[in-house]
Amino acid sequence: MAAKEPITAERLRELMTYDPDTGLFRWKAAGGRGPTSHHSGDIVGFVSKDQGYWRAWVDGRLYCGMHRLASLYMTGKWPPKDSIDHHDLDGSNNRWSNLREATKSQNSANRRSNNSSGLKGISWDPKRRRWCARITVRGRTMHLGWFPCKIAAHLAYVVAADKYFGEFARTS
């Protein structure tokens, strides 16, 4: 079975409305069957439990990032994959003012820290008994140095993040 073509901006606007102030899509008419049935005015989609992004079944195809549909609706063209960033890091906040175009590297830069140090860009090296600072830019990891305290290591990361990512730098 051939994969369905992605929805066009025209078809999207025919099926639903998008409110840039709330970030919500609503169905224009009733339709669907079973679990995908809906009434006119119903909110389109659901927030996924695993990633927190809005998803929706449209014309028999699952769209896993409705922020991309918002971009299609507003601009008339599909954005490249991984090129729409949620400025506030809330994947369920699809307000137009919260969405921005970003390169894959910029999108990655705007992520929270998830390491055990609690500070982005640093890790403890028990062999050297020092803190290591690193940053990844365009898929390449750069070593920023070894530091006796984690604050100094994190400061090195903050300076590099500001240099390489500017407004997309997320330092916490």
Describe this structure in words.
The chain is built from four helices and ten strands. The chain has 172 residues and is α+β, with helices and mostly antiparallel strands. It folds into two domains: 9-101, Homing Intron 3 (I-Ppo) Encoded Endonuclease, Chain A; 106-168, GCC-box Binding Domain, CATH 3.30.730.10. The chain has a three-stranded antiparallel beta sheet, with helices on one face. A three-stranded antiparallel beta sheet has the order 8-9-10, with helices on one face.
SSE blueprint:
Elements: H1 9-15, E1 16-19, E2 24-27, E3 46-47, E4 54-58, E5 61-63, H2 66-75, E6 84-86, E7 99-101, H3 104-109, E8 122-125, E9 130-137, E10 140-147, H4 150-165
Antiparallel strand pairs: 1-2, 3-4, 4-5, 6-7, 8-9, 9-10
Helix pairs in contact: 1-2
Main attributes?
172 residues, 4 helices, three-stranded antiparallel beta sheet, elongated
Quick rundown:
This protein has 172 residues and is α+β, with helices and mostly antiparallel strands. It has helices at 9-15, 66-75, 104-109, 150-165; strands at residues 16-19, 24-27, 46-47, 54-58, 61-63, 84-86, 99-101, 122-125, 130-137, 140-147. The longest helix has 16 residues, at 150-165.
Count up the domains: 2
How many strands appear in the DSSP assignment?
10
Number of helices: 4
Second-tier CATH architecture of the largest domain:
Alpha-Beta Complex
Distance between the termini: 45 Å
Could you tell me the CATH topology label of the largest domain.
Homing Intron 3 (I-Ppo) Encoded Endonuclease, Chain A
Structural class: alpha+beta
